[in-house]
Amino acid sequence: MQNQFHPEDVIEELDEVLEDLEETDLQDPAFEDEDVVLEAPPDSFIFKSSIFPVLIINRNFRIIYENPACHRLFTGFFKLEGNQLFDVFGKSFGLESIRDIRDTVLHGKNGFSWKGISRLKTREIETVETRVFLFPSEVNTRDPNEFVVLFDDVTEENKHLLRSVFMSLLEASKLKDNDTGQHITRVNYYSRKLSEELYHKPGYEHIDADFIDDIGFLASMHDVGKIGTPDDILNKEGPLSDWEWSVMQEHTKNGAYILSTYPNPMAKEIALSHHERWDGSGYPFQLVGDMIPLPARIVAIADVYDALRMKRSYKDALDHRSTVKKIKEESGTHFDPSLVEVFSAIADDFDAIYEEHKDIGTKNPNS
Ligand SMILES: [Fe+2]
Ligand SMILES: [Fe+2]
């Protein structure tokens, strides 16, 4: 019974500590730690080894200090210290937030405190999403001159939350169309590889690090709409009737509907348009050329490459060379010619992905 918890003892102990603190003269030289070298601003030293990324700004919104954690978080984006907060983070806050931050610092709105969200990105670096907390660095004043800006990096947390929901949808669709094996994983890898290559080509400046990361996840969703396709059509051995074929084609629209809540429209574009063809003979809307969204044109090559390489109940598997030949033959009819050109240059990488993520004894009658 020796270790029994007595709340009154804890309260008593706490009172003693508080009394001790009141009695301590904080200005006493004996209380100072000689090893601590203060840097301007004086408050910043406590943040030096903090795991929280922290900036200190003055009333003119100039960044007067960044701690090492903050430096690491935003490395590759820009230099922070010495710059104006809004010059650096202007685009990552919405206009409303910028007004709020101004009113917080200059006019003491909400007790000189603000919290919000910041999203920073460059072409080379994926979006960094942070919760931001701004509050005075001095507590014993009615008119603070310096403010702490504390960042909480929620990039991975939010991405994981979002993607796990859509992964569950994908898993649900696999319960119906469960013999696609590693097909969807490989389509992710091919699409990512092709996008990485396009990133360096003129004319594809809108492909950035986020695009590459997103297509590497969303390509796998291209057939998620099959969750709405009746089983007897989805699993039918042999050719589909005209009516069955038109029901099958609905998986593109169903997929777009299912993915319409995904924040990046790329998800919807891939599901809706991965069966469109460059010459306008595809479905569901017979889009022509670059009316077909780029992610869907990329996934079309990835999907067909993989489908050709797989053995199905109604066809044999093609080898890599024959598959590449077939895709080249369909340049300008089925596929975007400039994408086929890039594909041809890196076709060996497609083969390597196929070999590395090969299925063991799978079949899929219709795709
Ligand atoms: Fe499809
Ligand atoms: Fe597919």
TrEMBL record:
Naturally occurring in which organism (per UniProt): Breznakiella homolactica
Lineage, uppermost ranks: Bacteria, Pseudomonadati, Spirochaetota, Spirochaetia, Spirochaetales
InterPro entries: Cyclic_di-GMP/3'3'-cGAMP_PDE, HD/PDEase_dom, HD_GYP_dom
Matches recorded under SMART domains: HDc
Gene3D superfamilies on file: Hypothetical protein af1432
Membrane spanning residue stretches: none
Domain HD-GYP: 158-359
A matching Pfam family: HD_5
Protein name: HD-GYP domain-containing protein
